[in-house]
Write the structure tokens for this entry.
Amino acid sequence: MLIENMRMAFSAIRANKMRSFLTMLGIIIGIGSVISIVSIGDTMRRLFEDLYRKIGITQAYIAIGYWVDDWRQSDYFSLDEMERIKEIFGDEIAYMDSNANTSADAYYARSTVKFNYSGIDYNYQEVQPVNLIYGRFLNEGDVLGRRKNVVMDTVSAMNLFGVENAVGKTFRTTIYGSTDEYMVVGVYRKEMDPFQAMMMGANTEGGEAFLPYTILTWPNDFIYALRFFCRDEDTMEELCASIKAYVARSKDRQPEDFQMITAKEQMGQWDGMLGGLSMAVGGIAAISLLVGGIGIMNIMLVSVTERTREIGIRKSLGAKTQDILVQFLIESAILSACGGIMGTMLGGGLVKAGGSLMGVDTVIRPGVVVMAVGFSALVGVFFGIYPASKAAKKDPIEALRYE
């Protein structure tokens, strides 16, 4: 009986192709919008997760809180304090530096380029791999000896020197009021996907370079913040709490006087915000499903009126009220489900096309697709109940008299 009802439903839909398509259009737009928005949200969440994992998900920073009023100079870190923290937590810390950076003009011949300098330790590559193509990376001697050596990317080398292989070339720059000659000891190639370039910025006109963090310390070697990478992501929270407690004790402060910022927490905040935004916008888009459902109810009422004589004939041949009810419910459900399938194809296609243009891999969860199609069928059933009930309750004698 079910197969027969489905066959009759498809026959009725094919008999009025344009009307059926226009009826499904509301469902198509609604489901397509929901699939697109949820998929875009999931794609953005994964892109942010990948971004944070590339820059180091186990990365964390500790510094005196900006809310502290009774600031004192001892609240800053010294190089000796940083070394003591490395010794105490060495088994759990993979890397640590002063998180120092500054900007200054770099001069070579007649070229002047604005550079951003980042201070790092010699083992930085252990936590953030660098694709070195010329020369060498900074070594322990560079850091301990505060040598004026730098490692820059190929774009920065081209901007300043006009060549990629700038190893051995020197330039002048002024850092903290001191003008010195710096030598390029290595050049690396920066590899960034389109999303990473968009979020972090692709410096195509300026310059970027690594130099020993010991050069970028404040006068008297004071450091505002410490940056470190944990060895194990699972024990990261415990390690951060331990370091925060140790720093507070050593500086005669309360742990809450220091701020601990972790990449994992920041990623979680972005994920929560994007997830909530996706659900909110998706919910708004789902309102169009209500409009589509009303359209289905309207067309089913018209169909019941047009097929009054058919209903009378079926009832006179022995069809029960339940049979007529099921027939029209199946028809409305199929009408809505077909719209859901086409809407899913439309939404998924748009997301895939947009991802291809932007050069990113999109995320379309199968569960969302199944839920969307199933929900669209339920919409058809819900809004088809009244027309189906009206058809089922028709008197067969009156129906046969209908012209």
